[in-house]
Amino acid sequence: MALRQGSKVWVVDKDSAWVAAEVLDFAGKQVQVLTSSGKKVLVVPDKLLPRDAEGDLGGVDDMTKLTYLNEPGVLDNLQRRYALNEIYTYTGSILIAVNPFTKLPHLYNMHMMEQYKGAPFGELSPHVFAVADASYRAMMSDGCSQSILVSGESGAGKTETTKLIMQYLTYVGGRAADDDITVEQQVLESNPLLEAFGNARTLRNDNSSRFGKFVEIQFDPNGRISGAAIRTYLLERSRVVQITDRERNYHCFYQLCASGRDAEKYNLGHPSEFHYLNQSKTYDLDGVSNAEEYAKTRRAMDIVGISDIEQEAIFRTLAGILHLGNVEFSPGKEHDSSVVKDQKSNIHLQMAADLFRCDVNHLIATLTTRSIQTHEGIIVKALDCNAALAGRDALAKTIYSRLFDWLVEKINKSVGQDHDSKIQIGVLDIYGFECFKANSFEQFCINFANEKLQQHFNEHVFKMEQEEYQREKIQWSYIEFIDNQDVLDLIEKKPIGIIALLDEACMFPRSTHETFANKLFRNFRSHPRLEKAKFSETDFTISHYAGKVNYQTDTFLEKNRDYVVVEHCDLLASSRCSFIAGLFPPLPEESSRSSYKFSSVATRFKQQLQALMETLSSTEPHYIRCVKPNSLNKPHKFENQSILHQLRCGGVLEAVRISLAGYPTRKTYHEFVDRFGILALDIMDECYDDKTMTQHILQRLKLENFQLGKSKVFLRAGQIGILDSHRAEVLDLAAKRIQGRLRTFLTHRDFVTSRAAAISLQACCRGHFARKKFSSMRENAAAIVIQKYFRWWFFRHAYLQLSSASLFIQASIRAFSTRQKFLYRKEHRAATLIQACWKMFKVRSRYRNRQSSIISIQCLWRQKVAKRELRKLKKEANEAGALRLAKGKLEKQIEDLTWRLHLEKKIRVSNDEAKLVEVSKLQKAVESLTLELDAAKLATLNEFNKNMVLQRQLELSTNERTALERDVFSVTELKNENTILKNSLSALAEKNSMLEAELSQAKEDARSTIAKLKDVETTCSQLQLNLQSMQDKLSNLEDENHVLRQKALNVSPNSNGGGYAKPLPEQRFSGALHTSAEHKSYESPTPSKYIRPLAQGFSESYRTKLGIERHQGNRELLLHCIKENLGFKDGKPIAACVIYRCLLHWNAFESERTVIFDFIIESINNVLEAGDRDGAFPYWLSNASALLCLLQRNLRSNGFLTSGHQYTAGSTFVNGRLLQGTKSALRRIGLEDALSHMEAKFPALLFKQQLTACVEKIFGLIRDNLKKEISPLLGQCIQAPKNQRVHGGKSTRSPSGIAQQLPSTEWDSIIKFLDSLMSRLQENYVPSFFIRKLITQVFSFINIQLFNSLLLRRECCTFSNGEYVKSGLAELEKWIVNATEEFAGTSWHELNFIRQAVGFLVIHQKRKKSLEEIRQDLCPKLTVRQIYRISTMYWDDKYGTQSVSTEVVAQMREIVSKDSQNLSSSNSFLLDDDLGIPFTTEDVYMAIPGIDPSDIELPQFFSEYPLAQLPIPPPQVNV
What we know:
Layout: E1 8-13, E2 17-27, E3 30-35, E4 40-43, E5 49-50, H1 71-83, E6 88-91, E7 94-98, H2 110-116, H3 128-142, E8 146-151, H4 158-172, H5 183-198, E9 199-200, E10 208-209, E11 212-219, E12 225-233, H6 251-257, H7 261-265, H8 290-304, H9 308-325, E13 329-331, E14 338-340, H10 343-356, H11 360-368, E15 369-373, E16 378-382, H12 385-415, E17 423-429, H13 441-472, H14 485-492, H15 498-507, H16 513-523, E18 530-532, E19 540-544, E20 547-551, H17 556-560, E21 564-565, H18 566-573, H19 578-583, E22 596-597, H20 601-617, E23 620-627, H21 640-649, H22 652-661, E24 665-668, H23 669-676, H24 681-685, H25 690-700, E25 707-708, E26 712-715, H26 719-910, H27 915-970, H28 979-1049, H29 1053-1061, H30 1066-1078, H31 1087-1097, H32 1100-1105, H33 1108-1123, E27 1128-1129, E28 1132-1133, H34 1134-1145, H35 1155-1170, H36 1173-1197, H37 1217-1229, H38 1235-1238, H39 1243-1277, H40 1305-1323, H41 1328-1352, H42 1359-1384, H43 1387-1390, H44 1392-1402, H45 1411-1418, H46 1424-1433, H47 1446-1461, H48 1481-1487
Parallel strand pairs: 7-23, 8-17, 8-23
Antiparallel strand pairs: 1-2, 1-5, 2-3, 3-4, 6-7, 9-10, 11-12, 11-17, 13-14, 15-16, 18-19, 19-20, 21-22, 24-26, 25-26, 27-28
């Protein structure tokens, strides 16, 4: 790798495995780099790997698209996608699934399965459904069986992934079952059943599978599931008797203990009471109820086909195992013997014997002794305590293992294998590579299986590489890859493989793990893959493909020996329970000679594995690698070291190495030219295609060993680094040139600024000096002016001083003489005034004494009168309080009325199902409201009269108060004497003012009360009108629905037609009379069922009027009208008008029969099925809707749809003629009781229902055909063509400098499709109402398809693609404007979702937008989940800008996670298509204008049917 300053690299880190860094400097043979954490590190160049600094922030969905396909690049890409909840990533055809540890229900719903069904692999985002669909499609297209291999460590999500695969396969391969339980259900329900008996909690996972599973789903030639088979591998038997702390035994034991009654029946308690369960203190799982899981397990057993008796036996066996584990032993009286320890152990032993249905003494003997057969006879040997405990555990393990095998076999039998099936899909859920601190025999077998699968995986990956090279037609013969055959030979090769040596050691009773280890080291001393452990004499280390694993051989021999104890088998084979006895069939005769029968677990596992590999080799494999992101099982936590180890163990990095051995870097020619076109800009300016430009660029750089394929360029390892280095040099030179230009610009700008500043400074200095000189000259001139004015002021001031002094002296002398005269006159006037006042005082004092005496008398009298009036006013005030109380009662009555009115409204809205009862209640409520309203009116009038009386009294009191005020004003001068009277008067005035205020308030309340009462009257009248209209509508609906139910119960139209045409014999007539006499009521009150007994009872003359020839001619005439395209006249459909006129002329609407109507509907359906869809559907939509409107108007004009649903004996069907004739006939034949049934049946209403269904059917067929036609066009419009994308950041421009707009042929095809649709509909005179509905639904479908495709395909969420789609939407908008609102309606609003999504793609500066701005301004219609999906998938391929900020992404992720936990809400981000009919019969009737059929002339072919009744005189119909 060529390094330079600024190169972006990856450097090894102890904690994070790899960290991003940048090259700073070179120090000898080492390189100084700056890591992303800010640390400076010296590293050897060989330990650095290149990093793509321009990579997508959201990662790539396929690892092969990485610019640098290396270990840190793979790890970083997974981390980027995991942060965005993108848990699936491809590595070629391999799917990597990272466990999110949180629920993502929107990824696995039915709508998502529908999206991936049939989609090409790689077109949509990576998903487990995509792998399952690819395997299904490959099986169906190639006829070759497929297999899906799911692997990963415990807790990585293998089991859940397997469930999802099986769920999808049952979805695409499901079938309609004759039984209640389908094969698909049994296959799916086998998962929870096997989980209960084969899964347990481990330190790493709460639901860890302790066995391998291969599910083979078989299909028939049509792709439907025809059978299934399950194979299991290496069940962990030792877990039944031994578990470590914080782990659990198998789930079924804990479920049984929590089962309630079943647990009591088997004498089971809490798990802590049993030895096999209390070795660990963990009894429950977080968020899991054992009781609920027990119910699910029982339900799964029911579905799989396990009977109740077998279920009872299974759980009784499990309970027996638990009780058996509590049996303990103590030393016996004899040497090396043992007995049951205590009473508690005896109780559990007795319980176990009862549950196993065997003899308790036989069970004790089996556990404490062994029988050895010799030539001399049978020798019984006693077992010590340890041997007895080992035998007890061996018995428990054997029983559980046989039980598990029986379950698997039972599932296979219940589901049923299709031995004739030629194609199948196998799903392998097997343990991943394991490497712990202590690795034993189980890890050895698991890693051996993974070595076999890895070899198969390597061959498949290498094969895929070869296929890729062959597809692109490049040379690949010199590519090599690493093989692990030497490890497999070390383990399984005979006669000196590890398994062979282990079996040999197990065959000798005195062999130990030390002798086995010594023999192993002696035979493989020089083998490169096997090493001896440093600190142990018996441990050995194997170098697997994923790393070295150290194995402890302490328990290898014990776990490999699978002894079958004959006594155990004999004991359980003699059980009285047939189920347990069936688990232990009789042993062969040679096996019964010894007490033990040895079987090698490793050899048996090797044989199973070999069979599995043969099965996989015969299928086309698909790989899913499950990854556990952290050891804490928490979401949004990514541990690099752990994931890197899992990628190594899963073979993903091995696949990367295989790719590196060939051509690891593959880019399409467009991508290559887009990235490296700047290395040869002269070539870019010439008119070459992408492949030629790629070749010229590589040849100019003198690169070798590259390959040019059909659509991609293949580069060897390191060549992409050389290209990036040259690209960086070109960019550096360009940057230096830009910097030079920028520095020149900045220097020139500084010089110009300095020069302008100097000139400005000089001008300022000159101005300062000139201003200073001017100021001096102005000061001199001012001094002269000041001197002049000062002299003028001084002389004037002296003159004025002298003048004022002389004037002051003269004025003083004159004033003195005048004051002397004034004083004399003043004294004379004062004496005269004193004399006058004294005389006046004496006269006034006498008058005042007399007047005060008179006033005192008057005041006492008036005080007495005022007190009397005060008492009267208080009494009136009390009456005003009564008025207020009456007013309050009135208000409460009004509120009560209002509340009752609102209550009645709510009851009427909420109880639609009981409309008749509601109507009666409303009528009673209206009557009560009317009575209460009358009472309220009377009360209001009484209150109003009282108010008038009070008003008159108040006027009298006001007059009296004015008189009092006049008296008070006349004595205002006597304030001191009548203070008490004044206070009382003021208080009275205040009370009067309060009374006036209360009176005015009472008047206002009375007015408001009257207004409210008027509103109540108006509301009541409106309710009565609504009630009446509702009764009318209800009666119409009941009539129509009643007739429709009768039609559903009726016989088929063909049988009705036969009964109508053929005359009945006399025997049928007499039989009808006998039947009618015995049964007065009929079994089905439909018109068609009444025709036969009535026809049998009519006279022979009545039957002759309904001749066969006439009806046959009528049918032929109608059939000709329906089959032939009669066209239109003045926009009116001729066929509909002619059919309507014929029906009117034949009095078909008055007939009791529905045969003619059934014939019309059936003929129209036949024409629709056989005719041209483009022409027949619009033609008959126009005719059927016109015929429906004519029929609706006829029914309305004859009073069918206006009266109630109950009809009297004198009512008629259409005009009353038929019923009168029928009554007499019924009386003659004794069927008078049937008259009440006949009066309620209306074939015309039934015909209306049939026509409505026909119109809806035609509309739905047109809509569905339009969707099928436009779907492929929309698939081409969602993504911009490659020739319209930007190359190398340069846009194509015309000579005038304006960007050329390439023609969007895909959108033009959409416009042409819409134009042709509009022309077809208008040619057939389809009413604008239907055109508007069709166009609206088509645009709604366009919105849904484009929006869903945008969210599912990442390559569509680009800036340039957004511009492309936006231009197409602009074309659609122009079409809508040209189509006018009459035909287009609200079509533009139907595109809201795709418009807002595309608008979000093309908006600039997304990182500056907050979440509220996006939700309220940019995308108000979109949900947070949809915005989050677009934001995380968006990438700018034109300007390189980024998506929304990380803060906004974090907010949306939090909201999405909360929504995901809410199961009641919809978590899907996709839109659903609405398949409903957007109109009703009333809408059609109101929207379509009236048609007069009398203007239409009869066609010429009418003369060809002389036997038919022809409507020659056209009827006059008032439409």
